């Protein structure tokens, strides 16, 4: 268990900034749902709402559906779409459309599962200055573990847990449409949660978002609430 905790703690180390860094505080809330309707097929749904700096107004609304193919009990592949609305921007609201593909693999580290997710996004970004949308591709690597508190017998189906995760983002095509750099951002997350049943988790935690900006970098301290459902 100690080796597992050390490995996961290493995932929470954020990248260091060389440019001037702006500090923000915000709140995110979301629902992540998965539904398996046959041995090999299922769906994903992800809905999020995010506030602006200092919890002022709503900055982002996101809806991300996807269709999943289950390769086996440990791995699956999903293709999906995302609608991302950035609100309260000067002039008018902005909308980004994305097509995305992801692969998930879950391994066991002793009694603790570690989930790896690799996601590729094709982004169609609306510009605040007007004109045509700009296209870019981004690659994201995500690792997450849920560590039960206590010593449940067999499968973990109910009780408190700790959630640890980290996600790193890279601009792999047309990076000038975003920040002009290969590294885009990093998100490190620590949460406490409660598993109500095999199908439902509630979670509240702190997310450290470091964004590599074109001019200034941003360090965003986020309080995040999440609901996870699995049917």
Mean pLDDT: 91
- The arrangement of helices and strands along the chain is HEEEEEEEEEEE
How would you describe the shape?
globular
Largest sheet: 11 strands, mixed, barrel
Radius of gyration: 18 Å
Portion in beta strands: over 45%
Low-confidence stretches: 11-17
Would you report the number of β strands? 11
So what's the CATH class?
Answer: Mainly Beta
Signal peptide: 1-19
Protein name: DUF2490 domain-containing protein
InterPro entries: DUF2490
Keywords: Signal
Highlighted features:
231 residues; mainly beta; Porin; 1 helix; globular
List the helices and strands and how they pair.
Blueprint: H1 2-10, E1 21-36, E2 41-51, E3 58-70, E4 75-86, E5 94-109, E6 112-125, E7 134-148, E8 159-173, E9 183-195, E10 200-211, E11 217-230
